[in-house]
Amino acid sequence: MTFEELLIDKLYYKNTFMKEDEFDHPIRVLGEAYLAEQQNELAELSYIRFAQGEVYFHNKDFESAIFKWENIENELEPWAKKNMADAYFELGLYPTAEEIYRSIVSDSPILTTEISIKLFSIYTVQGNMEKAVETIKEAVAYNPDYKDLTDIAREFFEEQEDWANAIELAVNEAIRTDSPKWFEVLIAYSEDGKTNRFAPNYFSKVLVSLYIVNQRLFETFVSSLWKSYRNETRDVYLTWIKEINHILINIEDRRNGNWHELSALFAETYSELLNGQLLLKELSLMIPEHLENWLKIADSTHALAASAAVLSWGEIFPSSINQSIIQEAENIIVHAKNETDVLEESVHLFETILEWAETQEVQISYSLHWMVRKLLDLRVHHVLVAGNTENGKADFINTALGGHGLGTSSASFIMYDDADTIDISEITNTGVSKIDNLEEFHKISMHDETIIDFKLPSDLLNNCAVTLSYMPSNGQKHIYLPDAILAVINPSEYDGDYLFNLSEQMPYTPLHFVINDVEKIYSEQEITILVEEIRSKFPYALVLTSTDTADLTTFIKSITQSINVEEVRTANMLSFIRALMSNILEQRKKMENDLDESIKWEEEMATKLGGAIHQLQDMEKEKVENITQSYQTIKNEIKEELKHSIPALLKGSSELIKENSDFRKIHIELNEEMNNRIQLHVEKQVLPNFYSSIQQWISYAGEEFYQCKTFLDEMREGFNSLYGEERLKLFADEKVLDDWRRDAERMKNGIRIDKVNILLRHTPSQVILKSAGKLFGALQQNKTILYNKYKKFIENEDYQEVVNTITNKFLMQFELFETSIERDIAMFFKNPLLELEETVKKTEATRQNNVKTLNRMKASPEKFRDPLSLFEVKLRQYEWIIDASKESYPVV
Q: How far apart are CA 722 and CA 719, in angstroms?
């Protein structure tokens, strides 16, 4: 043990004062030494006291130990103070212990470190974790090589789940020591998901160190960090990818064929980066580095995929990858073995494109899903029946299937598949539609360019494990399904150019021939000439000159046995994806054009609808004016009639006055009679005339409304013709006339003129006349005078006030009715106007939404263009793999 270790363990006494063969107790030995030292003139007792304190400490006599250590005045004084603090710590007097620890000043790194460890222990016991962390970090920074110090710190951080400090410690120690132990600690933290709280560049230095020290651990750590950051936000994950690529690109010797996990991660990440979620501006700098690194570190499983990825990216984006890397990829791809399931990967690419297309609001037909399922059914071979004539193809299929099938040529693509029972379905853009019988099948197949899945019992299909497909000559959408083409021809209808063009459109699909001479109308020489011509143009084609079912079965089996179905389906799947991408691009252009046209059309419609609203409002105003004016004319005529008839009636009442009349009551009798005559005149003449006029007025209003209804009908037909559907109703409220008729009946039967005070008023002339009658009415000689006076008064009186009163009472209900005419006419027009206004709002809302959509599409075309470019890169990668697989040869 070193001297410092003796002091730390408090064994100074044993090494200094105890002999090897000493059996006496240390207390006795030290006591004797103390007595002996006292005998010296210059006694130095500090060493003995220091040793005695150690013995007391070991025997738990902490107070005695403290007493001894208090009196140390030599070079051991700092250690004595440290020991005193140790004793106070054991006694649980932590503040005193802390104070003493902090008071010690020493140049000894060991003592200083020990003091830090002891302070750390105090803070831990006290639960003061903030000070504990600060103290242990300072100790590690001051003396990281001190025994077990970093382990103490690591264990403490782990217990506290202080992963930030734990990781910082591990990173610093790994860089400082290059010890695999600390790298393994970091790997464990990463695998436990603790490292992703740090930015990716935090680990750059330690990764470079680890690469130099241990490449196996380097791969493990990188793979663990990769998987950890993959679960973080996209920005963090992309930062990691950039960082690891930057690290690897600056390492000269990256080639290591044993990095299997890292090679797989590069492959997976490359596929993720090209899934259409990122734009080229985000990838243009990242991908070239990624591909260069992948090419360098790829194992044999991924070498072909990596080189194909480099070549495809360089092909689509020339000059983005260094030419030396392109050449290296070209060298690798020649010899690399294909370990990629391109069919599976292409299906994944297809699904990725579909998901992306859905986010772009591009509609993908269900029939495409159906075709992909057929491509993935490797249990059967798909054979396409081709030929120069539709009837020839149909007749052949009918013969091959035992009489079932088309009967005549078809406009549809039809796939015949073996099944226990007949089951026919139409494959539409939205799903599968059941076809119930052959009659319906013939009807649909003859007239609709659709897909029909025709399942039926067939020995040929079952024995050969094939499907037979009929495709009309103009049906190019389904050329990606067949594994082989069977051209049905005869000498008189053979068109080699058509078949040659078909084979060029389907370069991976073998073409074979059946000479269809069922009726035996061609000579053997004609058949031979045709066979020779076929073989001159199609040297690898098989030719069948028999239509016998057994021969046909053998012939089809010979065709399918030579086909590597997975290889053909893979090639067809890639061609299918290319066509899909082209179709999506066309749909996008069509969407933009349709939106542009729609916006213009909606603007025109909004203008036309607005014009219709103004027309209808003008018409409403016109009808209100016409109908109201007509009603007012009737009312004014009645007023005039009452103005002339009532005074005449009243004046005619003078005939009731006789010379023998009782002039004391004559005014009462006359007043009663006048009211009766007015009431009778109103009921028998005025009211019937007015009712008749009202009926004529209602008829007139009906004609006016009929004009409006005709106008609305024409307007509805015009707009619906433009919309191409019955969108507008424009139904007016025709109950208005019924309401008016009911109101007219009610007014006719409900008019009653209350009695008017005609002669019982208090006008001067009436007062004098009535007073005279009362005074002189009983005297015979005065009656003649009163008779003449009354008669003259009745005949010459101005009844204008009475006329006004009666007219106002009579017309009260009619004027009330008049006030509702304008409102009722407005009700007639209300629904059409509301409907037109609502349609304008919807049209404008649709237009604005389309404008926003179109502006968004035109403002960021890269959001559509870039993903398609990335899908193109991935597609070309798979095509490179397929082509290289066909041409590769083993390395000797």
A: 5
